[in-house]
Amino acid sequence: MSSLLFCTRHLANSEEQMLLAEDGPDLIHSLDPRRCCNINAGGSANYKCGEEKNECLATYESLDYLPSHSEAYKKWLQEKAYRTDWDRWLLMGLIGIGVGMLGFLTHQIIDCLIKLKWKLVENYLQNGNFHMTWICILGSGLAMILVSSGFVVFFCPAGVPCGLPEVTGFLNGASIQNVFNIKTFLGTFVSCVLAVASGLFCGPEGPMIHLGRNFITAGAGAGIASVFRAPVGGLLFTLEEVASFWDVRLAWQTFFCCLMATFTTDLLSSSLDGFVYRGHFGFFEAEKGILFWVKNLLDLSILAFIPTIFLGILGGLLGALFVSLNIKINKLRMRFFSSISKLFLRKTSKLLESMMILVCTVTITVYLPYFFPCTPVRTLRTFQLKNNTEITKEFKREIAEYTCTPGTPWIGPDGVKYYNQTFNQAAALLAENGRRGIAYLFKRGTHEEFGYTSLFIAVAFYFLLSCWTAGSAVASGLVIPMLYTGALYGRIVGLILVSIFGVQTNGYGAWIDPGLFAAIGAASFVSGVSRLTVSLTVIMIEITNDVQSLLLVMVAVMVAKMIGDWFNLPLYSSLLKLKCIPYLDSEPFAGQRKKWLNLELFSARDVMEPCVRVLHLKEKIVSLAQLLANTSHGGFPVVYKSEPDQAEVFLGTITRLELCMLLENEPIFETETNEDTFSCDLLLSYQKVTVEKLPDPSRTTMLLNHYSADPQYQQLFINLEPYINKSAVSVQAHFSLQRTYIIFRTLGLRHLTIVDLQNRVVGIITRKDLMPFQLEERLGLQLASQRLDLDE
C-alpha cells in the first residue's frame, strides 16, 4: 500500500491566508482507521496503517489558517508597505485566463484524437470488418492508456491521480504533499486527455482544479466554469463542495476568476476548431457556447412533477448504489495492490488494470453495435410560429452512422430539404464520446429515436464501467459519466410515458418528451452521487439553457439528495474517508451504540492528550536538538513564570519548523540565561523563521545530531520569546467539546492548548483528536467509565 503515499507539502495558500508549518507524521489506515490509534505525547496523532508489518501508507499534516503573532511577525508588518488587493484581482484574472485556455486545449485535443481514432477505422466499418475495427481501436486506445496511466504511476510524485478529495482536504486544513506541484499538474493533464480520448467512460474535469496554485478555491471553480461554460455554477460549486472557509471578498474574486475562465474558453472556441482558424473571432454562437443546448423549450404541466419525483427517488437509490460499489471496488483495489511487495510490480499492476478496463470498454463499444440494426432518424420538425406562419428549418442530425449507409437528401412536398438518414442506436450511445451522447439524449422532439433495448444496455454498461474506471490509475473526472448515466435512465422514463400516452404535439401534452426527462434524470443521478443541490441546479440550467425546467430540476435534485443521504455519505466525502484525509465537517458527528452523542455534554478534557512537552522562554540548544530529534510533534506550548515562586503558565506556542529554522542560525545562540538581556540585533527576520518547508532536511538532521553530541552546546541557550505566537488560542479543560470543535475548525487551528483555571497547560488537542472515529473511541471510554462508576 505504499503506492498510496501522500507526503505532506507545505504550500503557502495566500487565498486562505494559511501559514503552513511542518507537523508530525500521521500514519493513517486506508481501509479502517479504527484498527490502531496511538497519540503522541506532544499532541501529534499517529494513525498506523494496518498491521505492524505494513509500511506507512499516507502522511497528512495540518495547516495554520492564521500566521504566528510573534514579535518577529509584528516587526515585519511594521516594515511592510500597505498592501492593496489589486494584485490579488490581477492574479485571479490570470488564473481564470489560464484555466480557460487549458479547458479549451483539453477539449480540442480530446476531439482531435477521437476523430483521428475513428477516421483510421472508417473503411473497416463501411466494409463490416468488426475484427479489424476492434484491433485498430484497441491498439490506439492501449497506446493512449499506456501513456496516460504511465504518467500517473511513474511520473506523478504521489503515484496516484489527485482530484477533488485532495483539494477539498487541503482547503479544510490538511496539507498533502505534491498535489499542486508542476509534475502533478502536467501528469494529470496528459493522463486525463488521453484517458478520455482512449474511450474510457470518464470525463475531462480532472486536471482543471490543479492550476489554481496558491488560489486553489478560485482555480477549482474556474475549472468547472471552463469545462461546462458555467461561471455561476463554478462559483457555487466551490462554495458548496470545495471551500471550508468562505467570505464575501473571496466570493467576488472567485466569481471574477470563473468569469475570465468562461470568457477565455468561449473566445477561443469562437474561431478555432481542431486548432484550425475558422474566422468569426469574438462571435459567440449559442450552439458552441452552451454545452448541451436545448433549442426548444416546452410548456409544462403540474403532472410533470410526478415522474420528476420518481426520477429523484431513482437517482438517490442508484447514486447511493454507485457510491457503495465504487468504495468497495477501491477497497478491493487497495488490498490487492498492497499485497504486492515490490514497488515496480505494484505500479505495473496498476497500469495493467487500466489497460484491462480499456479492453473491456472497447470490446463492448465495438462489438455491441453489431447486434443492432440501422434505425431511421425520427424527429419532429423543428418549428417556430411567427404571424401564424410556420417557418420550417432544414434538419440533418449528426449522429453515429457506424456501418449504416450515409443519408441522401431529398426535397419534400413542402419544399423543405430532408435526409433519409439512418443510424446505429448502440453506437450513438456507446461508441461516441460522452459529451455528444448526452447531447443526443437531451434533444427535444426525438421521442422514439432510441429504443428500450439500447437504453437499458447502455445504462447498465455505462454504470458498471464508469464505476470501475473511477479510482483506477488514470486521471479523470466523473461528472460526464454521472450526467450520461442519469440521462439514460431519465430517457427510459420519458419513453415509458410516450408508450403510455403517445407522442403529444399539442401544448398541454408537449412536456411528455424523453429529452426533458433525460436532463432531469441526469441532474438526479449527479445529486444522488455527489449530493450537490444549489450548484448542480445552476450548472444544469447553464449547460442546457432550459430555464423552463428549473423547478423540475430542483425537485429531482432535492429528492435524490434526501434519498441518498439515508444510505451513505456522498462520493467525495466517502473518498476523503477512504483516503484517510483528516477532514473536519462543519458540525461534529460522533455516535455510540447507534445513537448520536451530544458533544455539549462532554468537555475538552475528555479528548485532549494530557502528556504535553512544554518549552520555556529560554531553552538549552542541547535540549531543543534532542527534543526535535526524538519526537515528531508539530508544535509545542511555551510556558513562563512571572515570579520565581509562581507556577508556570501558558504564554503561547511555537512550531517545529520555526524551531528548526532557529537552530540553523547559530549567531542567535546565547551563553547566559538572564531573562532581561536580549539584543534586537540578533532578531531573525520573519521571512527567515517562517518557511513552507525545510530547505535541506538532511542538513537539519545533521545539525540536530551535532548539537546533541557536542559538549559546547550544553551551555548555549536560545531566546524563544520573539518568535512565540502569543495570540495562540487556548480553552479551559471544562470547556464544552462542541464549542471546542467549532472554535478549532472555524479558526483553522492546528494546535489547541488546554489549560486549567490557573492557566497552566494540562493538555493539547490536534486535528486528529477531533476526527469522528477518534471522538467515538475517546468518548466511548468516557461513557464506559461513567457507567462503571454508577454500577459501583
TrEMBL record:
Record flagged with keyword Transport: yes
Membrane topology note: Multi-pass membrane protein
Highest taxon above the source species: Eukaryota
GO molecular function: chloride channel activity
Annotated TM spans: 89-114, 135-160, 180-203, 215-238, 250-268, 300-325, 351-372, 450-470, 482-503, 515-538, 550-569
Any coiled-coil regions, as ranges: none
InterPro entries: CBS_dom, CBS_dom_sf, Cl-channel/antiporter, Cl-channel_core, ClC
Subcellular location: Membrane
SUPFAM superfamilies: CBS-domain pair, Clc chloride channel
Family matches, as PROSITE patterns: CBS (PS51371)
GO cellular component entries: membrane
Domain CBS: 724-781
Predominant location category: membrane
Pfam annotation, one family: CBS
SMART domains given in the database record: CBS
Keywords per UniProt: CBS domain, Chloride, Ion transport, Membrane, Repeat, Transmembrane, Transmembrane helix, Transport
Gene3D superfamilies: CBS-domain (3.10.580.10), Clc chloride channel (1.10.3080.10)
Family in the record: Belongs to the chloride channel (TC 2.A.49) family.
Protein name: Chloride channel protein
Taxonomic path: Eukaryota, Metazoa, Chordata, Craniata, Vertebrata
Gene name, Swiss-Prot/TrEMBL: LOC102387923
